[in-house]
Amino acid sequence: MSKPTVASDWLCGCAGCHMSILDIDERILQLVELVDLRATPITDLKEPDEDGVTVGILEGGINNTYNEEVAKKMRERCKILVALGDCAVFGGVPAMRNFCGAKAALQRAYVDAESNDSEGKIPSDPELAEMTHVRAVHEVVPVDLFIPGCPPDADVIFYALTELAQGRIPEIKNDKLHWH
Amino acid sequence: MINLKIDGKNIEVEEGTTVLEAAEAAGVYVPTLCHHPQLTPYGGCRLCMVDVEGARTLQPSCTLPASDGMVVNTNSEKVLNARKFVLTLLFSERNHFCMYCQVSGGDCELQNRAYDEDMTHWDLQPNWQPFEVDASHPFMVLDNNRCILCRRCVRACGELVGNFTLGFEERGADSLLVADYDVPLGESSCISCGTCVQICPTGAIIDRQSAYKGKEIDVEHHVGVCTECSVGCQRDVLTRDNHLVRIEGDWDAPLNHGLLCDQGRFLPLEEDRPRLLTPLVRKDGSLKAATWEKALEAIEAGLGKGKGLAALASTRLPIEDLALFKSLFADGLEAELVTSLEEGFPTASLAALADATSDPFEDSLDALKDTDAVLSLELDLVEDHQVAGFFIKRQLQDGTKLIVADSDENKLADKATLKLDFKSKFLDQLLDAVENGSDDDGINKAASILKEAEKPCIVYGEDFAAQADEKELQALLELKQALNATLIGVKGNANSMAASQLGLDSPFKSNGYQSAFVMLGDEKPTQKLVKALEEVPFVVAQAAYGSQLTGNADIVLPITMWAEQSGTYLNMDGRLQEAVKALDAPDGVLTSQEALLKIAERLGIEPETDWEASLKSRVPTIEIQKA
């Protein structure tokens, strides 16, 4: 039997959760014994295999039309979708902008900020994705496992991945559960 | 008695017990949020829902009275699902973002309850409607985004403190926690007692001073008596790495049951006086840093003894220090004057009365918590001794009558049923009115209020004690008798009564003293004291902080402030309570006691250290007991 496959991607997050994945350190050797690590932001392969993976991991909330596409693609191509970290689970820090709206946030960042010169303007290009309300992943696609934390502990990530690799659904509770 | 079954356990409880209380008694844990042991059950959050056999729906256990034969289940699937659903609704009602909330990580009851239910997320979206954040108050921030509408703060503000500042405007999802009629908290009628901060289960009302300075997992607790005044509230001083983090009231304290005032909770953390860290000795006209040895040498050379020496001690200091001080200066150095900085004003006349009658005549402060008529004499419990004032204020809405008799402005008077002018012979007139009626409408009304009351209470303060003559005090005792009233003497600082017991209660008059020793502790010297000492040629000051007084002194000894020393305190109603050291003192800084012992050793005096015996050398105005 071939090893289960894992793919990950990041959306509107800070990459901290992926850093926390790397924080499992040398245990990554044990992990690759159990699973086949496929597409991730830090490997050469960038998109989950067309014929699907066992576990898909998403870091970050969904803040634009591109994030929506990535989330939907991951959902289509994985059996178990994991929302990793507070942004994926709750929307996180980027979701603070929902209180004023994307337009006001862009205006503040690109035009009004004290550090901008007088020529500051909001980027606009047809190739740029359209900004939306920031949402948790489960508000866009169904999620099977939630691992909150800002970021989640490396120990918890290692525990969850090894459980998933062995066909079990990890129990995120007690000392493995925190939202900050 | 009532018999019921909770999760298979048979339990017998008294009639009137709620199902929640019965469950607690049976050792069954039921999660709660809006419930608080010090508040009337409210039934607002629905987290404590339980399954009662035969009931159509789940019932909130905090408001449900236990009844005979009741069969209750607290952990059926239906209950567990309801709990998660309730929590989900609470989270999605407002905007809860744990990752940037200061109470996240153990200090948030909402988060803790969700963790208990293994919630990794909640299924509904947050509200996304931004709610107001009110940061206008110097000590608190009020953030409606994190409010769960449990109304604990509102209930505490009214039920416990009697201030009724906090309330809700609008209804349902629009409900908004506001101060008064929706004014910024910092401009409201808030008295900064901080009970709302302490009782808030989430980060909706947060403490500015301790923000991000340490959570429950980081801090050490030091529970002891507050040393700010004679009420003697129990408080918990939270420290981290030898720094003050926050002060909280002790919910389990029989006297103050969690309450503190701004002076006990917030102001000690606002200390900004310069700290004294080394002994100072005046040389060639100016104060210079010196070693303890040099300072002691200078004290030996200049202090003198007997006539011409005055010694004054702060009544904020522990009894141990005061007793040692008295022994050293009265017995050892035979100083002309040995007294406290309060000079006996809050206590001396009353202590003399107890001396004369050999009978303690005052009553426990607990009487003030359950009274239907209060007569307040020359006492503003809004300004000082505030927690005693809370006991009165919170009863007023239930019909307790308050008569304020004061010769001056009095902030409690706004809430009084009757405000009278306190003049000499007031008590004589009142006594006469109680017995025979009076032509004076006000006095007559006061007399009839007190006569009609079942548990009248007369409470008086320093201004009354300082001016009362024997005749007036006799009238007070006769009034107590005639009305079957309780008498509560509020006194002054934390150890006013102890100073009185030790006989440190003589007035300090400029008397041509040649030298003076002032054991100031961390007290702020008054202008009157500074002025009086200017006339004394040689002054030794023992102080934690620099002041005009230490600046004028000839020798200054650096000593500990309140948090750096342990010791015993005798509060206004005779409770002996311990203050607990919370911080290590800076190097080279001694406690007042250690400094006194050094001086005694230097002068070859062996002072008496049995303070308990000294405390009993005089009939107290109220029985002394270990709390």
User: Which fold name corresponds to the CATH topology of one domain in chain B?
Assistant: Rossmann fold
Oligomer: heterodimer
Domains of chain A (count)? 1
- What fold name stands as the CATH topology of chain A? Rossmann fold
Pair with the most extensive interface? A-B, 30 and 18 residues
In N-to-C order, the SSE pattern of chain A is: EHHEEEHEHHEEH
Give the class-level CATH name of chain A.
Answer: Alpha Beta
State the CATH architecture of one domain in chain B. Answer: 3-Layer(aba) Sandwich
Helix run count of chain B: 19
Question: Can you tell me the residue ranges of chain B where pLDDT is under 50 for at least 5 consecutive residues?
Answer: none
Form type of chain A: elongated
Largest sheet of chain B: 7 strands, mixed
Terminal-residue CA separation of chain B = 32 Å
* Overall helicity of chain A: 25-40%
> Helix share of residues of chain B?
25-40%
Strand order of the largest sheet of chain B: 15-14-25-24-23-16-17
Strand order of the largest sheet of chain A: 2-1-3-5-7
Report the average pLDDT across residues of chain B.
96
How would you describe this protein?
The complex is a heterodimer of chains A (180) and B (627). By secondary structure, chain A is an alpha/beta fold. Chain A has one domain (5-95, 133-176): 3-Layer(aba) Sandwich (Rossmann fold). Chain A has helices spanning 16-22, 27-34, 65-77, 86-90, 102-112, 154-165; strands spanning 5-10, 36-37, 53-59, 62-64, 78-84, 131-135, 145-147. In chain A, strands 2-1-3-5-7 form a five-stranded parallel beta sheet, with helices on both faces. In chain A, helix 2 (27-34) packs parallel to helix 6 (154-165). Chain A is elongated and about 55 Å long. The N and C termini of chain A lie far apart (38 Å). Chain B is α/β, with parallel strands linked by helices and 627 residues long. Among the domains of chain B are: 2-75, Ubiquitin-like (UB roll), CATH 3.10.20.740; 324-344 and 496-622, Rossmann fold (3-Layer(aba) Sandwich), CATH 3.40.50.740; 348-489, Dimethylsulfoxide Reductase, domain 2, CATH 3.40.228. Helix content of chain B is 27%, strand content 20%. Chain B contains 19 helices and 28 strands. In chain B, the strands form seven sheets. In chain B, strands 15-14-25-24-23-16-17 form a seven-stranded mixed beta sheet. The relative contact order of chain B is 0.11. The model of chain B has no long low-confidence stretch (mean pLDDT 96). At the A-B interface, helix 4 and strand 7 of A face loops of B.
